[in-house]
Amino acid sequence: MSVKLQEHIDKIHEVLEKLIADSAKGCPIVVEGRKDLQALEQLGIVGPAITAKTSRKSVLDVIAEIETLPCSRPILLLDFDRRGEELTKRLSRHLETSKIKTNTKYWRDLRAYVGRDVKDIEGLPTYLLTLNRKLRERL
Hints:
Dna Topoisomerase Vi A Subunit, Chain: A, domain 2; 3-stranded parallel β-sheet; 139 residues; mainly alpha
């Protein structure tokens, strides 16, 4: 059982390492709020980021902010709950009408690996700590 758990942890870390690399290249990451930004920092992701739900921003405000950035493919990394999924789809749709392609691969991959265990980005660091603790207990 600990082999499967280790593989699960490794897959999540693999996605996060790729996300760190893309973020370091300057691709902005769009998250919902400040706590999500803090979670990204805890995971070692320190590139440019945009919060979509702080300061009462509208979807149009977020789109306008993304349009000013040099990266051609912003990374959408919103929460994994129903509202986050809806916001991801809405932002992606609006940006693509503005000729800006979005990257939702990290969101899809992480959501697939964490399942229903994590509902938001801010929960990722704690989830990884919990998985690592469980792995140590089984060894």
